[in-house]
Amino acid sequence: MRMRRLRRSESLRALVRETAIDPGDFVYPLFLCPGEGIRREVSSMPGVFNVSVDEAVREAEQAASLAIGGLLLFGLPESKDERGTGAWDDNGIVQQGLRALKKSAAAKKLVLIADVCLCEYTRHGHCGIPVKSGDTCDVDNDPTLDLLARSAVSLAQAGADVVAPSDMMDGRVAAIRRALDDASLANTPILSYASKFASAFYGPFREAADSAPQFGDRRGYQMDAANSREALREIELDLDEGADMILMKPAMPYLDVVRAARDRFGVPLGAYQVSGEYSMLQAAFQKGWLDPKRAMLESLIGIRRAGADFIVTYFAKEAAKLLG
Ligand SMILES: [Zn+2]
User: Is residue 293 annotated as a catalytic residue, yes or no?
Assistant: First the structure.
């Protein structure tokens, strides 16, 4: 046997290729900010911008013309408070963005996914309501559920095709499902970030979304990097609570967990190639240490090969152009 026989030409290699990536598998994150005509580059994420709603519509039109599958929307509100009221304000920044995107014929071709969390809207930067006990601080799980559910309903009413809770509170999927159903939004699917690890690779995102915790960290609610069985339990619980799809994050340092989830569950699975994965590659591209085109596509095909059906990635537009 000579394995090299089938590697001799690009056409042979293409014929026997096991994994495909397509722009339709990509979800492109957008960070919406107040104002008009604003495109503010995130310094730690070259090529990623905070955009005002009018610019977001332009981004969406471009994404649609590249046949990208969807957008994941985050918000940078005008002001923040202790409870994150901007998250469920019907006039909040993402709600405004959703309404504008729904008016654009091009943007309508995209699946509009709204991130549901409080950390971008709270002054303290945690994903829920903090409670102090002595010197330490914890996030109070159950009162937070109510606020997340209100946010999800508000975003779905503004036009979100899918809501995506990313907070890692216990029981949030059930609370959100109930609230959506009560608001006659039974057809709105939930993409749950069921398997979200407390990761150093989120660093640049916190600049992009202005959501760094002002005290402590998120290890009290996000998962420990060492645990993969726990990730499968998280996914199982979220599916029992009514999640329609699962999102796993980060991607690259956790591809074994993506594979384990793929083997265990038949539901649609996405993986988020997070900011640190993107920035790390961008830094190497800028130094001339890696070939941008090849490294970008290889990083994405690795995530698909691990078992993700779709990938949230800041490379979505660039990769879509390459895939043509
Ligand atoms: Zn959060």
Answer: no
| Interval between CA 108 and ligand 1 midpoint (Å) | 27
Residue-wise pLDDT for 304-318, tens only, equals 999 999 999 999 999
Is the Cβ–Cβ distance between 19 and 304 less than 8 Å? Answer: yes
As a whole number of angstroms, the distance between CA 312 and CA 319 comes to: 12
User: Residue 37 — pLDDT band, cuts 50, 70, 90?
Assistant: very high
Asked if 100 contacts 157 with a C-beta cutoff of 8 angstroms, the reply is no
Closest by CA to 255, choosing from 196, 320, 306, 308, is 306
DSSP 8-state symbol, 27: E
Average pLDDT score over the chain: 95
> Is 321 in the active site?
no
| Bridge partner list, 72 | 29, 113
pLDDT band of 18, cuts 50, 70, 90: very high
Structure tokens given for 4:
């090299």
| pTM summary value | 0.96
Average pLDDT in the 247-270 region? Answer: 98
Going by the DSSP 8-state scheme, the letter that residue 224 receives in this structure is: P
Tokens of residue 320, six digits: 């879509």
Tokens 């046949």, located at residue: 67
Q: How far is the CA of 314 from the centre of ligand 1 (A)?
A: 18
Catalytic residue among 80, 196, 287, 293: 196
Q: How far is CA 153 from CA 119, 180, 194, 195, in A?
A: 17, 6, 19, 23
